[in-house]
Each structure stands twice: as structure tokens, then as C-alpha cells.
Amino acid sequence: MLEYDEEIEQRSNSLYGQGFAIGFAEGRLEVMFKILKDLTKKYTDNQIRGLEPAEGDDATLLKRWNNDVFCNYLDFYRKYENFSVKRLVKQYIAESEYLPWG
What's the CA gap between 98 and 86, in Å, rounded? Predict the structure, then answer.
């Protein structure tokens, strides 16, 4: 019979938690980059950043997202805009110390 090992259980729980967190971050990033890909077809970077007024269906969304985090996503997207969304997500995670947890 196997003995209970608290250290092994803690490591297992930690790895499970990290795996869940990475999966959650990948999902959020994928949505964010899909939205950015669509927005960059309709609006200029300055309109997306809130530096110029935007008109259209997404204008309210752009006003809501006028913040530093969203602008950082835009900068990253522009750096690798020829990548697929999945590749953008992988690259962002590889380069980033900060992941979007919530």
C-alpha cells in the first residue's frame, strides 16, 4: 500500500494549478488577439488607443478598453501581426512575465 506523502501532493496540486492557470491565460489571450485582429482591420492604432475618436459598431468597446494593458496587447500584436492567433498566444506566453489571470 502506498503511503501518503504531503510533499508529493503539494507538488501535484501546484502543477495542476499552474496547468489550469496557463490554460486559462491561453484562452483569454486567444480571445484578445482575435478581437485585436478584427479591430485593426477597421480602425487605426490611434483610434484603438483612444488618441483619436472612433466611429462605428465598436466605438463603445474601444472607449471601454482605453487602457495600458490593452495597448500593450496591441504593441505585441503589431510586432508579430503575421503570426496566427495560436502562435501569437504561444509567443506572448514565452516572452511575458505577466499573464492575464483575471
Answer: 18
Ordered by start, the domain boundaries in the chain are 23-95
For residue 84, what is its C-alpha cell? Answer: 496566427
Beta-sheet strands, E only, within 1-102: none
Query: What's the pTM value of the predicted model, to 2 decimals?
Result: 0.71
Residues 56 and 85: beta-carbon distance below 8 Å: no
How many whole angstroms separate alpha carbon 42 and alpha carbon 40?
5
Measuring CA to CA, which residue among 71, 28, 30 is closest to residue 47?
A: 71
Answer with the residue of higher pLDDT: 58 or 81: 81
Q: Which residue, among 97, 78, 88, 95, has the nearest Cα to 26 in the 3D structure?
A: 88
